[in-house]
Amino acid sequence: MGCWPVWRQASAATVTGVAVFGTAPIWRAAxxxxxxxxxxxxGLMATAAALARDERQxxxxxxxxxxxxxxxxxxxxxxHAGPFPLLAYVxxxxxxxxxxxxxxxxxxxxxxxxxxxxxxxxxxxxxxxxFGYGPDAWWPTLRSDDALYQRFSAAFWTCAxxxxxxxxxxxxxxxxxxxxxxxxxxxxxxxCLGIVGVIAAAWIPWRLFTAxxxxxxxxxxxxxxxxxxxxVGAFASAARRLLARLAVVDLTMxxxxxAREEIRRQLMTERRRIERDLxxxxxxxxVALTLRLAAAEQxxxxxxxxxxxxxxxxxHTSLRELRDLVHGIYxxxxxxxxxxxxxxxxxxxxxxxxxxxPDLRWAPGVEATAFFVVAEALxxxxxxxxxxxxxxxxxxxxxxxxxxVADDGNGRVDPAAGAGLAGLKERLIAVGGDLxxxxxxxGARLVADIPLC
Length: 453
Hints:
Blueprint: H1 6-23, H2 31-51, H3 58-73, H4 84-91, H5 94-101, H6 105-124, H7 146-177, H8 180-185, H9 187-209, H10 217-280, H11 282-297, H12 302-329, H13 338-347, E1 353-356, H14 364-385, E2 390-397, E3 400-407, H15 419-430, E4 434-440, E5 443-451
Parallel strand pairs: 1-2
Antiparallel strand pairs: 2-3, 3-5, 4-5
Helix pairs in contact: 1-2, 1-3, 2-3, 2-10, 3-5, 5-6, 6-7, 7-9, 9-10, 10-12, 11-12, 13-14, 14-15
Organism: Asanoa ishikariensis
Transmembrane segments: 32-52, 59-76, 82-100, 107-125, 154-172, 184-206, 218-236
InterPro entries: HATPase_C_sf (IPR036890), HATPase_dom (IPR003594), Sensor_HK_TwoCompSys (IPR050482), Sig_transdc_His_kin_sub3_dim/P (IPR011712)
């Protein structure tokens, strides 16, 4: 996945550091709550950094980052002096508001004015002692009025209740409209958001009807654990999405492999059909034409016989080229396997050929390619090498079939000089194979590697 940019690492470290600093005064008294708070901030920032890698999720990434920041700042009220209580009091609740922005932004902006205005009104109509802060705490008291404070508090928590309710409804509607596969991939995140909603359903009404009371530790812990579940659910959903994509890729590869085998089967069937048509049609006509020319030759004068002899030679050459073409499509001798086919090929040559070929079967395309390699190599040996003997060795090397043809000739081999070897190399490259040709004082050596699949 690569490394996060420096600025993302710095942002995640800064927000996590704020959470650690804010919970420092209560680490000994409430270690589990403190740990959950810090982990929630770190998890939210990690989720923001992960989402930022996808251009389509940049907006959501920013929201996750802001929620993590607001949550971390909310814990600064544990320091009962300086600007920290005020920052926590005003900015801390924004994490709920920012979370709602991801669902319906227009509505969240309207509720933001309500929520923040009520929160500021609460701060302006109270003093720091109401919340147990020290006299050194910065607090913008305009008028300490308990009745007015209670009205602002009721407005604030009513807004929070509306925000939570609307958020849950919109999330439920969005999940209901999501396609089944996407719903499955988002199930962990949806479940975690549902848990957060249940916690909010218990926490917000309690605050609404018990204004001024201290939040019980169990609800504080539930808030931290609930928010910690959001990045956990996000990462679990991302993992499900990745697994789904991998499954699609695997299925596609299987389908491609099956299609490739089917194409190979169709090609082999078509090759054999062409071979049979050529053998039963054009080849037989050429043979019959050769016999007629031989019969006609006996009744002609010397000049006519000379012309007929030339015609017979042309027909014989055409017949040989046709047979080569038929064999180039698919050697009929391979019906019994590579070893019998190479044995027949070697026996037809005036040059002794030593064969070291296992009596095994491979895919038709592999056997045909190996046969053409040996045939071309031995043809080159007969024409150019001046050899007295040749050796053919076939063996399996990993996932490839290695074919080696060597002779004791003059070793003068240039793969670029002959059309046969050049065509053979192109044939091997087309099937993903490779051809190596070399020569020396002890003769020439040709090695072909043919993929087995």
